[in-house]
Amino acid sequence: MQVSEITWDREGLAAAIACEDPAFEAALCEEAYRVKVATVGPEVYLRGLVEISNICVKNCFYCGIRHDIRCPRYELSDEAVLSAMQTAADRRFGSVVIQGGERTDAAFIRKITRLLKEIKQIDTGEDPPLGITLSLGEQPREVYEEWFDAGAHRYLLRIESSNPDLYRKIHPEDHSYDRRLQALYDLKEIGYQAGTGAMIGMPFQTAEDLADDLLFYQKFDAPMVGMGPYNPHPETPLTLSGAPYPSAERRFALGLKMIALLRLLMPDINIAAATSLEVLDPRGREMGLFSGANVFMPNLTPREQMVKYNLYDRKTALPDGPSSLADSLSGQGIVIGYGRWGDSKHGKSGLVM
Ligand code: 5AD
Ligand code: SF4
């Protein structure tokens, strides 16, 4: 198969996803990188990632911090969060992400509101105040509004799979696909840049499902997407069920291929090089950037807590130190968008702060 032969409908995308020819996959990633540079430019935008808590009320069958798993839980103090945010400002990351398990208790909701207001006050020198993305699961619309008013302007909520049947297979009965979709539309209506994404290479997932995921991002008109390979966690129901899933090599290749296809399908959106690529290959996130991704999230969670944010086995992952990838990327033709929010250019014209 040649890149020029891809047709951009469900059938054509599924054929491209199913084609395992390494020459085709390499050519596709190269083409996506070319299109990325031509459309959104050579910059990669940084988001300092802080994993605020691994406490979660949900029980997704694939997740290593699901409610029913016995594991050490933590919640970062305000001081710890703000100190990580100060690091992001000092290193001129431009934006930050607060990610955590889903929690609906009032104390947590208030804590996020309080932190958002304080993060907006952090001194960034000549740069604009830090741009803030939240990734804290499904919340009542009023909570999304409260956080938006307090200064968050982007929100990541993965659909996990756009196929409602597959969604049902990988979640308990009380996790509703429709509720999740509603949350995504709430976010959009409130005014957030609403990002979504799905896991790649899961049990039961077909090439058509992955094609539908891409078409879902297009239909939702997502200004940003963060998607990455599924990585099994040894103690989750999905792993223990014994349901087969693609090899690590295949999941990695699929992860890169999905980034590349999405870049070609939606040239001007923001696409993140997900952490789960790194688990499969030490250069994974970097390869994501060379396959069309333009957002990189250096992990600023203190190491002691980061090892407990164990969505999947991530033995190789460590906090990104000052001399790590973010800095070394510049040596490879990638321009780091220091001190900039790096909002999606999708659906916008004019200057981006
Ligand atoms: N493999 C890959 N990604 C996972 N996530 C949760 N568990 C796994 C896993 N086993 C992802 C989900 C969720 C995000 C926070 O982490 O997509 O949205
Ligand atoms: Fe909770 Fe998210 Fe894990 Fe589901 S994937 S159990 S919502 S942290």
Q: If classified by CATH, what would the architecture be?
A: Alpha-Beta Barrel
CATH topology name = TIM Barrel
Q: For the report, how would you describe the main beta sheet?
A: 10 strands, parallel
* Number of structural units classed as domains: 1
Q: Report the mean per-residue pLDDT as an integer.
A: 93
Helix and strand content put the structural class at alpha/beta
Write the H/E string, N to C.
Answer: HHEHEHEHEHHEEHEHHEHHEHHE
> What low-confidence regions span 5 or more consecutive residues with pLDDT below 50?
349-353
Radius of gyration: 19 Å
Say how many strands there are: 10
CATH class: Alpha Beta
Bound molecules: 5'-deoxyadenosine, iron/sulfur cluster
Shape: globular
Number of H- or I-type helical stretches: 14
How widely separated are the two ends?
Answer: 40 Å
- In terms of DSSP E residues, the strand content is 5-15%
CATH homology superfamily: Aldolase class I
Give the % helix: 25-40%
Question: What's the helix and strand layout?
Answer:
Layout: H1 10-18, H2 22-39, E1 43-53, H3 78-90, E2 94-100, H4 106-120, E3 131-135, H5 141-149, E4 154-156, H6 164-169, H7 177-190, E5 193-196, E6 199-200, H8 207-220, E7 224-229, H9 237-240, H10 248-265, E8 270-273, H11 275-280, H12 284-289, E9 295-296, H13 303-306, H14 325-328, E10 335-336
Parallel strand pairs: 1-2, 1-9, 1-10, 2-3, 3-4, 4-5, 5-7, 6-7, 7-8
Helix pairs in contact: 1-8, 2-10, 3-4, 5-7
